[in-house]
Amino acid sequence: MKLARPVRRTPPETIIALIDVVFFLLVFFMLVGRMDATSPFEVLPAEARTGADLPAGGTMVSVGAEGALALDGHATGADALVARVTAMLADRPDLMVRINAHKDARLTHVLPLVARIEAAGARDVMLIVTPGGG
Amino acid sequence: MKLARRQPARPLISLVPMIDVMLILLVFFMVTSTYLNLDMIPFVERRDEAPAPTATAGEDTATMLVRISADGRTYLRGRELDPDMLGRAVRERLTGNPLLSVVVLPSTRATTQQLVSTLETLTRAGATRVRLMRLEAAE
C-alpha cells in the first residue's frame, strides 16, 4: 500500500522581516516627529522662509487666533501665565521661551505678552514660524 | 525499538510579544508627535556682548521706521510700499549704510503673519539690525 505523503506545510513568512520593517518605521517616526506639548486649541504658526532652526527645550507659550493662551499645553490666563513663567525664570534664568502664535492672532495678543515675559527677565524669547509659503 | 522523536528547537525568546511592544511604541510615536517643520525668529536675544547701540544726534539718518497698518500694508515715511518696493528701498539704504537699523512699528490690529512677512522682507533685503518697536499695552 502506498501512503500519501503528508503535504508539507509551507513555512509562514519569516517574522524577522516584519520586525525589521516595524523597527524602521519606529525609528523613522521617532526621528521625524517632535515630542512637543500640543496646545488645547489650534495654532498654525506664521510662515517665513528666513527662520533659523528651532532649538529644543524651553517652555512654550501658545497664542490662539482669538487670543486664547496656553503654557506648555495647558490653557491659562495672561496673568497666571506670566506668573508661572516668572517662577520658572527664577528657577532657571536662562530659560528659553518659545512663542507659538497663530498666524492670524492679532499682535495686541502677542506683543504685550512678549513684553511682559521679557520684563519678567526672559533673555531668550523666540517666535515659532514654519518654513514655506510665500 | 522506539525511536526518540527529535524535539524541534524552541526559540529562546518568543518574538511575538516583542513585535507587540514595538507596534505599540510605533503607534505611540505616530500619534503623539507633531510633524510640522518648525523654525524660529528671535524676539529677545541673549545679549551677552555689547548693549544695543544708542542713536546719537548725528546718526539719526541711520534708522529707518517701517510701519505696518492694521490691514498688513507697510508704510515707509508715510508712503505705502508693497513688499518688493520695501525690499528695494531697504537695499538701497543698506548700500550707503550697511549698519542701517530698521525699526518696525506694527499696528496692534495687524496679525502675526503680517509682522512675520514684513520682518522676512527686511531680512531678505539684507537688514541685520531689525528691531521691533515696543507696543504699550493699551487696555
Automatic annotation (TrEMBL), chain A:
Keywords (A to Z) from UniProt: Cell membrane, Membrane, Protein transport, Transmembrane, Transmembrane helix, Transport
Location in or out of the cell: Cell membrane
One CC-aspect GO term: plasma membrane
Main localization of the protein described in the UniProt heading: membrane
One Pfam family matching this protein: ExbD
Membrane topology category: Single-pass membrane protein; Single-pass type II membrane protein
Molecular functions per Gene Ontology: transmembrane transporter activity
Example of a GO biological process term: protein transport
Presence of keyword Kinase: no
Ranges annotated as spanning the membrane: 15-32
Family to which the UniProt record says this protein belongs: Belongs to the ExbD/TolR family.
Name listed for the protein in its UniProt record: Biopolymer transporter ExbD
Organism for this UniProt entry: Pseudooceanicola batsensis (strain ATCC BAA-863 / DSM 15984 / KCTC 12145 / HTCC2597) (Oceanicola batsensis)
Automatic annotation (TrEMBL), chain B:
InterPro entries to which the protein is assigned, alphabetical: ExbD (IPR003400)
Membrane spanning stretches: 12-36
One cellular component term from this protein's GO annotations in UniProt: plasma membrane
Its membrane topology: Single-pass membrane protein; Single-pass type II membrane protein
Keywords in alphabetical order: Cell membrane, Membrane, Protein transport, Transmembrane, Transmembrane helix, Transport
A biological process term (GO) from this entry: protein transport
Pfam families in the record: ExbD
Localization of this protein: Cell membrane
MF term (GO), any: transmembrane transporter activity
Main location, first listed in the record: membrane
Family: Belongs to the ExbD/TolR family.
Record's protein name: Biopolymer transport protein, ExbD/TolR family protein
